[in-house]
Amino acid sequence: MKRIYVNEKWCLGCHLCEYYCAFAASGEDDMAKALKDITINPRIKIEEQGDISFAVSCRHCDEPLCVKGCITGALTVENGVISIDQNKCVGCYTCILSCPYGAVMPSETGAVQKCELCTKNACGEPACVKGCPNRAIVFEERG
Amino acid sequence: MAVNYIYPEYEVIRNPDRCIACRVCERQCANEVHRYDEDLKRMKADETKCVNCQRCVSLCPTRALKIVKTDNTFKESANWSNQTISEIYKQAESGGVLLSSMGTPKAYPVYWDKMLINASQVTNPPIDPLREPMETRTFLGKKPDGIVRDKDGKLKNNLTPQLELSVPIMFSAMSYGSISYNAHESLARAAQELGIYYNTGEGGLHKDFYQYGKNTIVQVASGRFGVHKDYLEAAAAIEIKMGQGAKPGIGGHLPGAKIVGDVSATRMIPEGADAISPAPHHDIYSIEDLRQLVYSLKEATEYKKPVIVKIAAVHNVAAIASGIARSGADIIAIDGFRGGTGAAPTRIRDNVGIPIELALANVDERLRQEGIRNNVSIVVGGSIRSSADVVKAVALGADAVYIGTGALLALGCHLCRSCHAGKCNWGIATQRPELVKRLNPDVGYKRLVNLITAWDHEVKEIMGGMGINSIEALRGNRLMLRGVGLNEKELEMLGIKHAGEAF
């Protein structure tokens, strides 16, 4: 299955992936309209210290702890993609505690949000990958 | 400073309706032009530091930015332009030589743009390169005086070593040090994939790039940096650099600040030591001396590699080329005065040398007259900007061209002409690790391959139009060129007729 992989060597720490992620999730067709004067809450986040930076988003684990821990069945695996049904989420945040990567986070509504590889928006392929200026984030099949 | 004589050259225009304050401009500007004001929750810009490299403009996700030339003006005249006045202010303040990078921005005539190419109509058919074979492969090196046969009448191979090029285009010399590791890797990988050559420049060959040796031309320049046996043996050809188009008669100076880590090891000089290339080779004061170096290098590599001698296009270029053609060199590279550089004194760059078109036409003509044209191949550089320039250069007599600036543009260079500052925002002309990583060679090499592939298609289209199906048949075919807006003397120098004149 195609997953998002991050190559720390080429990450510039420009944070564009975060903004493209927030834009893709907004459902708007104009980035300025979608993101102006707000604090974004993207599903991908840059971790950085000193000269080192890299993007972190859901790894779509083969044995996902978040899905195992979900008490309502809101988190499910669909064709390898770990998806969240926000209508079922009660906000217990067990998944947030159990994710070893910190890739699940609360959304504005209180339900959790996470990277779903842009399968639920109009972007087609992951927006962070398309928007990365240095190909530090790639979407590919690896054995 | 109490009095600020110089007004910033550019203004940063930010569209407040579009700016989402993502701060990518701030993070990506090594000149620290942009900053975020936490209190006002807005981006601000200090345009005094802007070099107009367009990095922020290119990365802004909402196209909220543009850089414009300021319309603030001194009381200019045709004689005293804003630029001239600013330069006097700068020197009055610093007392120093003005430094610049890349090719001259001055409005000298570009003869490529004053030559038009022929095409076939009715009496001789054009060729469709998509349907019929079209050859852009070429070989560089000395060609034999004649065919020699053994006693059985079989052909004897009396060919000296040649460089085989799939397209008559090579990447010109740019040293590791003046450009980054990632830029070099991009050039090397592109040359390998394309079946052409890149040139190390005078900074030596990084140990990681020996694997691309078959597509590498190594340079031996006046500083002899990084020259040793393995270096010479790794390469496909060796180039002796006598001069550079952007700064004829001038040596090089890579500041100690850039001689760090691998650059120091590759150049074989201590970290922090200035790398100074003398203006002359101290062992070359005549063609005879040059011949000694040519043969020393051939001896060291067992006569297996062609030797190139690179000179700047200067007034006496034809006579010098004639000497080089008799020195044992296999290829002459001529660099015109519009060529680029990582750093040169502005006055030299803008005022010394001659246009490559005139130099090429004269060298080719002189070598033909003397019956020694087959002794050497001619490679020209110094602002070859498109496939049309390539075709015109070949028709004027070049065997191949060198591109430097064009290749850097493909890698992201925006010609801000600030290489000498060492803060290239595109990761090309810098050694700062956080900037070097901005050029991912996986992306860079592909863009170079795309550029040369596109030019190859265009060269074939243009040749097909002329009814020519091989680059060899175009070489020195000056009847395929016509001048427009040139005077008698210029036409004579170029050896072409004026547009409107028939065969």
TrEMBL record, chain A:
Coiled-coil ranges (or none): none
Span of domain 4Fe-4S ferredoxin-type: 2-31, 80-109
Keywords: 4Fe-4S, Electron transport, Iron, Iron-sulfur, Metal-binding, Repeat, Transport
InterPro entries: 4Fe4S_Fe-S-bd (IPR017896), 4Fe4S_Fe_S_CS (IPR017900), ET_IronSulfur_Cluster-Binding (IPR050954)
GO terms assigned for molecular function: 4 iron, 4 sulfur cluster binding; metal ion binding
Domain of life: Bacteria
Protein name: Carbon-monoxide dehydrogenase iron sulfur subunit
Species the sequence originates in: Acetanaerobacterium elongatum
UniProtKB/TrEMBL annotation, chain B:
Enzyme Commission number(s) of this protein: 1.4.1.13
Entries under CDD domains matching the protein: GltS_FMN
A biological process from GO: glutamate biosynthetic process
Swiss-Prot/TrEMBL catalytic activity: 2 L-glutamate + NADP(+) = L-glutamine + 2-oxoglutarate + NADPH + H(+)
Pfam family name, one: Fer4_7
Domain 4Fe-4S ferredoxin-type stretches: 10-39, 41-70
UniProt xrefs under SUPFAM superfamilies: 4Fe-4S ferredoxins, FMN-linked oxidoreductases
Keywords: 4Fe-4S, Amino-acid biosynthesis, Glutamate biosynthesis, Iron, Iron-sulfur, Metal-binding, Oxidoreductase
Top EC category: oxidoreductase
GO molecular function: 4 iron, 4 sulfur cluster binding; glutamate synthase (NADPH) activity; metal ion binding
Record: residues binding [4Fe-4S] cluster 2: 29, 50, 53, 56
Family designation: Belongs to the glutamate synthase family.
UniProt protein name: glutamate synthase (NADPH)
